[in-house]
Amino acid sequence: MSKTRTVRLSEQQLDAFGAELDALHTRTMAQVGKVDADYIRKVVRWVRYTGFGGRALLMVGAIGGAFVPWLLWPACIVGVLLLALSKIMENMEVGHNVIHGQYDFMNDPQFDSRTYEWDIVATSDNWRHSHNYRHHTYTNVRGMDDDIGYGLLRVFPEQRWKPYHLFQPLIVPVFALLFQWGVAIQELKVGRLFAGKGARAKIRRDFKPVGRKMGRQLLKDYVLFPALAGPFFLPVMLGNLVANGIRNVWTFVVIFCGHFTADMETFPKQVLRDESRGHWYLRQLRGSSNIGGGRVMNLLTGNLSHQIEHHFYPDVPAHRYGELSKEVREICKRYNQPYDVGSLPRQFGEVLWRITRHAFPSRPKRASSPQGMPQRA
């Protein structure tokens, strides 16, 4: 983690900070082309091979294990891991990044951000609004960014404490295991219904496409593929269940490490008033954190191991973030702004600390400025 001492920036410095980061984006987008298209197509092949291999091994374990008992567990374990890997890559390196429009330049219907549908129960249409628009536009702005605790957890002292938050250390493991379901209903704002603020008719109407997507996913993973094993369907069904659970927990860990580590901040709505480009970059910087780990970590996180770069440049093909991070870090250093990066165990340990600490009542920290961040002079 960077130990850079944060300093306030003058109006001229803020403008220069934003201009440097904008220029880096422009230079990078000018280079986007065949290399990026070849990369994403290669990842899609990996998704298919690992998915096919995982499902095939589950089938071999289920059917073959009935006749050769020692074959059951090894084949099923490897099958589950391959299927989970396929689902992780499809969601994080392909789905998430394609839906951001990173590969629209290819003019390939397979990678069209407006029509891509991914392998989770959440619809891509809802994700485009809740994530691409609300989260990326209003990152860590209280009352605007629904990803702050996902309406369930208290992870910052500025959030109002309620008695049920005492149970959030117990709620979190369940939430992680069912993370794709939480994402699926996030846009529905079901919590407003329980609070007496939501219209039942609207929620029922909005739920219809989500319900259809949930049904298709349940049918695919827990009926159709297991049915191929005939009377030996149970190991295949359980294998799909475990693979989805692994994917869910991994996604939860990566996303929470991106915004809820120790030094992350939330901001009041006032920061949005006359927010300059440089100030917008500062808000993204102080609301995002990176995970160290190299190429394997980058692939398995969909390059959200570079959450800072992703929030700066969500339309840049994500496999470029590693290289971009070198210049971004240098720019932040020149302007004495913190660049938060740490190992996965360290970052997730800080997330768990936040979840545990803020399960109990606490007062907000006194902000360094009315906006809780360096301001325009």
What percentage of residues falls in helices of 4 or more residues?
A: 55-70%
Q: Give the strand order of the largest sheet, numbering strands 1, 2, ... along the chain.
A: 1-2
What's the main sheet like?
A: 2 strands, parallel
| Proportion of residues in extended strands | under 5%
DSSP strand count: 2
* Rg from Cα: 22 Å
Along the chain, the helix and strand elements come as HHHHHHHHHHEHHHEH
State the secondary-structure class: mainly alpha
Quick summary:
With 377 residues, the chain is mainly alpha-helical. The chain has helices at 11-29, 34-67, 72-99, 124-137, 168-177, 179-186, 190-194, 200-227, 233-259, 277-286, 295-300, 307-312, 321-334, 344-357, and strands spanning 290-291, 341-342. The relative contact order is 0.16.
Mind explaining what this structure looks like?
With 377 residues, this protein is mainly α. The chain has a domain at 22-31 and 121-359. The chain is 59% helix and 1% strand. The chain has a two-stranded parallel ribbon with strand order 1-2. The longest helix has 34 residues, at 34-67. The protein starts with 10 loop residues before the first helix and ends in a 20-residue tail after the last helix. Mean pLDDT is 91; it is low at 367-372.
